[in-house]
Fold these 2 entries.
Entry 1:
Amino acid sequence: MSTFQAPKGTYDLTPPRSATFLAVREAISAPLRDSGYGYIETPGFENVELFARGVGESTDIVTKEMYTLTTKGGDQLALRPEGTASVLRAALEANLHKAGNLPVKLWYSGSYYRYERPQAGRYRHFSQVGAEAIGTEDPVLDAELIILADQAYRSLGLRQFRILLNSLGDKECRPVYREALQTFLRDLDLDEETRRRIEINPLRVLDDKRSDVQKQLTDAPKLRDYLCDACKAYHEEVRALITAAGVVFEDDEKLVRGLDYYTRTTFEFVHDGLGSQSAVGGGGRYDGLSEMIGGPELPSVGWALGVDRTVLALEAEGVELDLPATTSVYAVPLGEEARRVLFGVVTELRRAGIAADFAFGGRGLKGAMKSANRSGARYTLVAGERDLAEGVVQLKDMESGEQTAVPLTEAAAELAKRLG
Ligand code: ATP
Ligand code: MG
């Protein structure tokens, strides 16, 4: 193993590709920030208990994928595998649900950890931007979140994504369905592990990717036929609201999602260019989660979008984000005196809010101009001894190639003017 290798299932974000990740995080969070969602940040680890209760003892995330550790002090912690349980825990701890009007609307961005089998689009360390709207049961809120995610993907230029929508029922109708499903599943030809799953989380069996399992599920009872009237009406309202917003979705009654806490509305965003790791994001309503982790009744809804897979989706569609060059002016000093003088100009530009960079290390003109080109700067400032003797610097427009001598004392102002 090389010394310079990131751990298995992880990768580093380095320039220039890292700029795309920043832009994706920015694009996903922008519609949230414009819609009343406040920023929240929680620790990278939590007491393991939070996820065991909040995500669910029967989920793959908790049974197989969680990084758990015991501290020297004996605390049982887990690196966070997802964001919702932590955000809700933090909101309860800070009493945000008592501080003002509900819902409490929050957005977050961060790293998550799951011990998975690494493959394209599936990593052990990945990044999500998420949103949670806590404390209100209102189909408009479910619709808002779906519409904002759609807006985020569209603003990035993504087109080949689809929205899958389903309702998982509530504490009235879901248990009835669960039992009907269990009765059906117990008669099938399934392996031991799947048989165990029937008893603890039968809906997850519907999610089984194997075709021999899927074949046996054709006649499984359908959740849709078991939804109570309240759940049906709620779901119809969500569908009508997102339809009215012009957001296209597909009803997918097989969509159950991997976490235990979902009730009613569930949705997933899939991208058709990603192969088997096709989910770029997902979410839903989790009306019982607060009580599951020991809080009051707080019906809530949220989503998390995967940044890594969104970047892969952009690459799959060949979308190039329009990322403006980070440097506007590049300074190339020729000689000791020019170094001091031009660095002074660069500092002045930076203080005026103009992005500027500098040819360090006293390189020759040719190498320095190469760096200037690579920086994407619109203007280059070049100065040698003769220029300084005349009190000027050479200002080169990198687009037109045009070069003009500008008085040194006016260089910063002239650049500010030209760059608008
Ligand atoms: P999958 O079915 O692919 O395992 P999931 O249902 O476990 O996904 P969620 O828990 O809903 O995923 O997380 C939301 C999003 O986070 C996913 O849609 C995906 O984009 C991203 N994500 C989840 N796990 C990973 C991972 N191991 N590597 C990269 N991205 C991930
Ligand atoms: Mg998963």
Entry 2:
Amino acid sequence: MKVLFVASECAPFIKTGGLADVIGALPKALAAAGTDVKVLIPAYPALQGLAGGGPTVKVLDDLFGGKAEVRAVHAEGLDVLLLVAPHLYDRNGNIYLGPDGQDWPDNHLRFAALCYAGAELAFDGADGWMPDVVNVHDWQAGLLPAYLSQSGRTSPPVVMTIHNIAFQGLFDASELANLRLKAEMFAADAVEYYGKISFLKAGLALSDRIAAVSPSYACELLTPGFGMGLEGLLRERRSDLIGILNGIDIATWDPESDPHLVENYSARSLRRKRANKREVEARFGLQRRDGPLFCVVSRLTSQKGLDMLLDCLPGLVAEGASLAVLGSGDGALERQFAEASSRHPGQVGVTLGYDEPLSHLLQGGSDAILIPSRFEPCGLTQLYGLRYGTLPVVARTGGLADTIIDANEAALAAACATGFQFAPINATMLEQAIARACAIYRRPRSWSAMVRRAMRQPVGWDASAAAYDAMYRSLIAD
Ligand code: ADP
């Protein structure tokens, strides 16, 4: 079976969040099960070195204002189809944002081009390679099934995976013709969404199946609080919606071999984790304390609930704990975390920015990771936490609810707890969860039993890749 993935990011080449991790890992897991995946992504500057090395498999004479081509390369264990279109992607800085911090003004064209090129590959294949199924990911790839649908040509079935429904790709209706969409596409059962064009809505309305990145998120999406305006459509499409939990790339994220740790370790050599803790303390200017070292590795946005953590800092510090934060995003939150580190010198350390190696060190060197998200489609950092024996403290929502077993009395008695959950999602309950974690940390045998159990959890892709595989096969059989 051959599957074409279409997405705007793919680790390790280009990453702004969890989407990239998934696009970089799931194809490899599918390949292990015998499914042949190629990933179409734009050739941003970070990928141009790669593009030079591969043959051209498709030429598009006018792709939204310029000539483009698709180059096929094999790198990092992935078959990548690079969409080379300098007029759209040859820009330095963030792939979504211009230097002013605002969306690139032509983002609608940049990602429509990705969808359009993906549709061409869906029709004609790439050098004899014809996809049986197309899997589009998030709003940036959402228009692809619209291009298939309006053509009237025979095309493969499409799966749309929702990694985060909060980002919908909304654009002015006057762009319809510029996006090469036929007038009939501006309809409630296609791209129209309250008078605008929504890339995500197009994908959800016109694809054959919809996958959400965790079973709990798939349920939550049917409700007004989480569906973000698309809950009605998703309720109509309920029988085509499935929740499949994300996994992680257990080769890249492996405490036994991770090159970003100062010492590698396993569940059998947990003492060696301490050298990483000392390194985190040094890098974040933290004193050695009696309580646990908590970390945060996150985008700083209201979704992630870190404003609630700011309210809990006096309590966290009073418990004898410390905190290392790596994050970037919302300017006000960045300032507040910087101020918090000045208010609690040696106890709260903050690094603002995006730093992949440091994110690995934090997973390796911390005792626990805090993820108080208001909503979380799946979340990957709690899975990295489990794998590195860094116990997750999480809000009970979405994929966080599906992957962490709370250390309540029953779970402790049954020896199955792997972290700490809190609900309802507010600062008081977060503070209580932090206090519960600190209390167990003071019982070293209970803590290390939990750490070892966490490290044994199956966080790889095996089961979920099999679920994707089964979904693709059911579509081909239809
Ligand atoms: P989201 O996709 O909503 O940002 P996820 O938990 O699914 O959240 O994935 C986030 C990914 O981005 C993880 O791989 C995490 O380690 C990484 N990440 C987030 N913030 C940073 C940062 N400041 N520096 C390095 N990596 C980060």
